[in-house]
Amino acid sequence: METTEGLDSQRQAELESALEKILKVIDTVSITTEEFKIIEKKIGENFSEKKKKEEKKEEDKDTEILEKKKLKRSNIVDLDGIKKLKSEIKKSAQVALFANESGIVFITDKGSRYVSLNPSALITTEITLDALKPLFQLDTPYVVYGYKKLLKSGIDPKNIKCDIFIGNYLLTNHTKEEFEDLVMDRDGEILKTQSEILKERSIKKMNLEEMHEFLEARAKFLYRSGDKFLEELKADKLKKIYNIEMDLVKVLYKMEEEGILIDLDYFKEYQAELAVKLDEIIPQIKAEVKKGVEHNLNMMELTEGEIRESLLQLGKLNYKKKSEYTVYEQKIEEADLEELLNNQLVFNIASPKQLGIVLFQLMKLSKVKKESVGVEVLEVLRDRDGEMIAENILEYRKLAKLQSTYVEALPKLIDENSRLHTTFNQTGTATGRLSSSNPNLQNIPVKTPEGIKIRQGFVAKDGYKLLAIDYSQIELRVLAEISKDETLILAYEQDKDLHDLTARKLFSLSEDEEVSREKRSLAKIVNFSIIYGKTAFGLSSELKISLGEAKEYISRYFSQYPGVKALETKIIEEAKHDGFVRTLYDRKRTIDGINSSNKNIVKQAERMAVNSVIQGTAADILKIVMVELNKKLEGREDIKMNLQVHDELIFEVKEEKIKEYAKLIKNIMETTVKLDHVKLKANVAMGYNWSEAK
DNA sequence: CGGTCACGC
DNA sequence: GCGTGACCG
């Protein structure tokens, strides 16, 4: 039971509970270690024998089905049949392909062909992907679902006619669509979904026929849908953005494969550092709780009974098992006050519920918002009441977040070369942005000094440096471009600091007056609110000002940038009329709720509409530029593109070439996409790690 | 498995 | 506004 590798948690739990039962029985007999070993051996033998029998049965079943139904044997391609399939594909006007780990179904003009990649599935010769390579080098157009996924599993058709995965995303803008939903949506054909099948038999145990059926149904859908999708894309002005997305697939694939190097030793060190800091904070927090409780006792604001009651509540949350809780209950009832405060004050700081009990029942802090212990509440307790514990809890949360989300998680995901390979999801956002997961490398901390330390762990390999180039205020420039607001355009023409300018506008400062740091940062927040379509309410709570003041800032902003106001009105009108909005490159986003009878929903939809156009256009630009960069840099070993973080691209570049490449890439980023009214500007940074490259 | 929180742009 | 992920109950 020590070794748990390779077992998922559910299976592990099952095994553990089984073992528990076994041990209980053994307990009643009281046996020696020697005897136990014998039993162990016996169990092992029986177990493996039983398993063998089961497997044999499965095989027999497969054979039976194969024999009985003479399962379209001609459709199953074996090693000898690959040549035949090749010529069939060659003659075919198009091919559709659907694959998973177990097999591939090809649909040609002649019909369905199944290649099993699952060695246990009764195919005499195991077919490797290598053997299939000739099939993918043909000119015949392939209709596929998820080209990047195919690339990842080693399938790379030369001529992709249509990727339904991408096409569907652009047409419907659905981000979490399952293939099954898509088919039912389009055809009304009810497929047995993967999850339904899994309920009956695990995918590994799916027999040949079931697997064939499963893959074939999907491939057939692709076969009949390719042309339809392409027509729809064209009819909906989405062909241009579709081509960009299709070109991008391979770029993303290469970036994922390349990965980014992390310094494992550094992470280990930082992990230890964080652990020490957390270890220091925890006792501090507990000491403050103890102090608070003692104070309350002395002031007769808290009774011993109340303390015991609160501790029991905590115990209920801490000890899930009844038996453990009963022991704890006993302890709490019997222990004296000294013991309670010194040893039984156990709670989980990360649990809002437990923290609530501690802060408001035991320490009797004044409630700000019920028993909520969110950031705002803790900040009030810290700033208004001077509660040290609030500051410490905030600090604890920050460190715990860094530790669990980054410092502990990232090293677990490296390959044998210490490189991290994220997955860029191309269909994961409503606006057209990419998202990144496993790990998410688009949310690596950057704001706080502690967070920046994480970036230091992202490094370049020997002889190389990281090159990070980001667009300067791309969304505001996009806003200037599509609003054609004269003030904004002029500001960028003169290369002015836009947050500075907005501060001057909001506070009616003259040219020669200095803009204070506070005013600039306030203006910056207001600028972002406009891009994000933030409400006056949101702005007021972020700036900690009154709703009236926030409204005042927003209305001043609009009067100073009338073009922006006009643009928002125009976008909202379009959304109301069409039910969708488009980016500069015609990417669509459907806006649900824009014509709702609920005022709040309408307001939210309006903000969505405005934000989508700006955010989406910026996303389009990045994608276009990434494709262009890939063309220029393809095949070069002295530079690789590693990451995209919405408005920033990160490369690993040979040290002696870095200045040359910095210049080249900056230029490509600034000139590939030409806007009519503003120039795009990119900032270059470089260094041995990601925090230096800033 | 949904809610809360925290990280990014 | 748009994301991913950790943690809790």
Query: Main sheet: which strands, in order across?
Result: 3-2-1-4-5
- What is the C-alpha radius of gyration, as a whole number of Å? 31 Å
Number of helices: 27
Q: Mind telling me which CATH architecture of the largest domain this is?
A: 2-Layer Sandwich
- How many domains comprise the coordinates? 5
- The total count of strands amounts to 16
Average predicted local confidence, pLDDT: 86
Which structural class is indicated by helix and strand composition?
alpha+beta
Q: Kindly identify the CATH topology of the largest domain.
A: Nucleotidyltransferase, domain 5
Report the CATH C-level class of the largest domain. Answer: Alpha Beta
Q: Which characteristics define this entry?
A:
694 residues, Nucleotidyltransferase, domain 5, Taq DNA Polymerase, Chain T, domain 4, 5 domains, four-stranded antiparallel sheet, 27 helices, 16 strands, DNA-binding, RNaseH_sf, DNA_polymerase_A
Protein architecture, described:
This protein has a five-stranded mixed β-sheet with strand order 3-2-1-4-5. The chain has a four-stranded antiparallel β-sheet with strand order 14-15-11-16. Helix content is 59%, strand content 10%. It is globular. The chain contains 27 helices and 16 strands. A hairpin with a 3-residue loop joins strand 1 (95-99) and strand 2 (103-108). With 694 residues, it is an alpha+beta fold. The protein binds a DNA duplex (9 and 9 nucleotides) through helix 15, helix 17, strand 9, helix 22 and helix 26. It catalyses: DNA(n) + a 2'-deoxyribonucleoside 5'-triphosphate = DNA(n+1) + diphosphate. It comes from Psychrilyobacter piezotolerans. This is DNA-directed DNA polymerase.
